[in-house]
Amino acid sequence: MLEIKNLHVAVDGKEILKGLNLSIGAGEVHAIMGPNGSGKSTLSYVLAGRAGYDITQGSIAYNGEDLAALAPEERAAKGVFLAMQYPVEIPGVTTMTFLKTALNSQRRARGESDIDAVGVLKLVRAKAKTLNVSEEMLKRALNVGFSGGEKKRLEILQMAIFEPKLAILDETDSGLDIDALRLVAEGVNALRDPSRAMLVITHYQRLLDYIVPDRIHVLAKGRIVAEGGKELALELEAKGYEHIVGQAA
Amino acid sequence: MSIAAETKSQVAELGEKYKYGFVTDIEMERAPKGLSEDTVRYISAKKGEPDWMLEWRLGAFKRWQAMTEPKWARVHYPKIDYQNAYYYAAPKNTPKKQSLDEVDPKLLETYKKLGIPLHEQMALAGVAVDAVFDSVSVATTFKEKLNEAGVIFCPISEAIRDYPDLVKKYLGTVVPVTDNYFATLNSAVFSDGTFVYVPKGVRCPMELSTYFRINASETGQFERTLIIADEDSYVSYLEGCTAPKRDENQLHAAVVELIALDNAEIKYSTVQNWYPGDENGLGGIFNFVTKRGDCRGKKSKISWTQVETGSAITWKYPSCILRGDESVGEFYSIAIANHYQQADTGTKMIHLGANTRSRIISKGISAGKAQNTYRGLVSVYGKAKNARNYTQCDSLLIGGDCGAHTVPYIESRNKTARIEHEATTSKIAEDQLFYCLARGIPQDEAVSLIVNGFCREVLQQLPMEFAVEAQKLVGISLEGSVG
Ligand SMILES: Nc1ncnc2c1ncn2[C@@H]1O[C@H](COP(=O)(O)OP(=O)(O)OP(=O)(O)O)[C@@H](O)[C@H]1O
Ligand SMILES: [Mg+2]
């Protein structure tokens, strides 16, 4: 589903990703771990199409299509979803309005008809309930004054509503309490499906107890330096990155 | 299409985006070109006015000849040649009709295209409309229903003939004939506009609105509106404005006077979408407008809400004179300037009475090469003890070639007054835009969403029937502004 080959990415002329290879098949869940500043968020932004993240070499194929040729909103309509490490505040735009606009934009781009306000309300409410997102939050301006954990839950709510094909979760577990972590993990697991792929970026093995990945990759200095099964996370937790990154260097 | 390519093609299309830019082909009758005492007499005669009105106009004209155009606003435009324009234009052979069925179908068609259904059975929203086409009112709807409630809602030319006592009592008492260059010019040559009188104790049963349309070329529009809310009454009024796309600049110099007596409330909303000129700054309306409300009675309230998206030049300061004790003045404004538009707009809150309160919320959005200025005055007189003002002025910049300016003047002659002023300037942040894009919302829609969020407090003030339209307008006027 996702095939990244020899990816080099520069931001403001500085190379951040330096020859990254990664391939995820449909139905698989992969995890990326790695030290601060290793390029994890950079990878997530490149996949979502953020301006200023220039691919200087290499390729990204998404379902066989050149992802770089698509505008970010086209990627979203084709099922790419990024739950951001730092969700953005948009003053004056209620969460419900935002969700409705986004959902119908994606549908329109796919040639589907709009869902009316009542329909969206029903859909959002049903999903919000399972994620413990309150009615009151939906009425507030998007992410404005939300706590760190509330912002993350809202990201997962969006994932549940949009039902993406490729979901990238950038440190969605950071800042969540134990109960919220379990809720988020349940949300992710509920979407696990033979037709979907997920890329989970995390610093903590704890999340991987709930979302058991098919494969773990270790990213350091812009490259994948180690790969393995779920036992790799335990090893990292025990020995730290220095050990593995040092070995690879 | 990539974002860059898409933006380019949108910019190319922009000239086509002003959807009100069509011209109605209809035979017109005009005053001879130019401005003289004869022009004033011609207009007055056309309207069948009584002598007192003609004298009033002539007095204004004399005064105007001795005045000079004000230059203090932050707007630049070529010198206006007042002799090279028409001051009266009306569809030919259209004396005011008794029924809509007699109105020229071409005119009805025009308003339909503008989204203003004049046929009463079609006016499902239940809004009474006065339609002013160039210099004359061509239709007024729901008159009978309003009559039952005792509300007078008619073209001002009709009010001068039918309700001379009311007009004489109030006309020019808020904006004196000598007020300023453009108001004095208007007093001499005003053509049509709306008159509203809401009697004591009456809550006007429906929204009132006037739709101003400039159609004829080389013609100025000088409308005059007078609204009186008698004791314990309430009225909500909305005006909309559009004009065809033309390469020339056309002058629009209106005067609006509002009077609220004891415990009365007037809510006045404007959606101004005059042709703004093209993306290179060619053409567009010069909009020089004097709007003022007088809270004459105690506990009266006047609330201005404006959404200003059109015009090449906007010079406009809807104000409140808070004369009555405990009266309240409000000003909610959205001013959008794109391409080469220049807006210099704001308000004046003049606190004369005790315990008067005012609130100013201004949202300025600048894009392209536009310049957007908020100019406001809060003045507290000696007797206005415990006067309160809260002002919030927010500017949003889109792109690096535009400008936002805030010019607040504060004068206080009473120590008990409390005046608060807050101002912010921000840009649409790249991360906000990316967040929207990443959720599938296309660029223009994302800009529209973010700007509408920025303007929310003001949009919420609009009557429901118009809020949705205004939101769309905000989006349309900024299309292609982020590249
Ligand atoms: N605009 C920029 N100019 C220069 N360097 C940048 C820029 N943006 C990001 N970087 C650098 O790129 C590197 C990778 O950043 P990134 O956010 O991808 O790291 P990360 O792996 O997500 O880290 P964390 O675990 O802290 O979230 C960092 O060293 C960061 O400072
Ligand atoms: Mg990161």
Characterise the protein shown here:
The complex is a heterodimer of chains A (249) and B (483). Chain A has 249 residues and is of the alpha/beta class. Chain A has a single domain, classed as Rossmann fold (3-Layer(aba) Sandwich). Helices cover 41% and strands 29% of the residues of chain A. In chain A, strand 11 and strand 12 form a beta hairpin. The radius of gyration of chain A is 18 Å and the shape is globular. Chain B has 483 residues and is an alpha/beta fold. Chain B has one domain (20-427). In chain B, strand 3 (128-133) and strand 4 form a beta hairpin. Chain B is globular, with a radius of gyration of 22 Å. The relative contact order of chain B is 0.10. Mean pLDDT of chain B is 86; it is low at 1-16. The chains are: A alpha/beta (249), B alpha/beta (483). The interface between A and B is medium-sized, with 32 and 27 residues. The complex binds adenosine-5'-triphosphate and magnesium ion. Residues 11-12, 14, 16, 34, 36-42, 85 of chain A line the site of adenosine-5'-triphosphate (ATP).
Mean pLDDT of chain A comes to 93
The domain count of chain A comes to 1
Q: What percentage of residues of chain B falls in helices of 4 or more residues?
A: 10-25%
Which value, in Å, is the CA radius of gyration of chain A? Answer: 18 Å
| Helical run tally of chain A | 10
From the 3D structure, determine the CATH topology of chain A.
Rossmann fold
Shape of chain A: globular
Question: What's this model, at a glance?
Answer:
The complex is a heterodimer of chains A (249) and B (483). By secondary structure, chain A is α/β, with parallel strands linked by helices.
Task: Please render the helix and strand layout as text.
The complex is a heterodimer of chains A (249) and B (483).
Chain A: E1 2-11, E2 14-24, E3 29-33, H1 40-48, E4 53-62, E5 65-66, H2 72-77, E6 80-83, E7 90-94, H3 95-109, H4 117-130, H5 135-139, E8 141-142, H6 148-162, E9 166-170, H7 178-191, E10 197-201, H8 205-210, E11 215-220, E12 223-228, H9 231-239, H10 241-248
Parallel strand pairs in A: 3-10, 3-11, 6-9, 9-10
Antiparallel strand pairs in A: 1-2, 1-4, 4-5, 7-8, 11-12
Helix pairs in contact in A: 3-4, 6-7
Chain B: H1 3-13, E1 28-30, H2 37-46, H3 51-65, E2 89-91, H4 105-113, E3 128-133, E4 136-140, H5 143-149, E5 152-155, H6 156-162, H7 164-170, H8 181-189, E6 194-198, E7 208-213, E8 224-229, E9 234-242, E10 249-252, E11 255-260, E12 265-272, E13 284-295, E14 301-308, E15 313-316, E16 319-322, E17 328-337, E18 342-351, E19 357-366, E20 371-380, E21 388-397, E22 403-412, E23 418-427, H9 430-438, H10 443-454, H11 456-459, H12 464-477
Parallel strand pairs in B: 3-7, 6-8, 7-9, 8-11, 9-12, 10-13, 11-13, 12-14, 13-15, 13-16, 14-17, 15-18, 16-18, 17-19, 18-20, 19-21, 20-22, 21-23
Antiparallel strand pairs in B: 1-2, 3-4, 5-6
Bound molecules: adenosine-5'-triphosphate and magnesium ion.
Residues 40-41, 85, 170-171 of chain A line the site of magnesium ion.
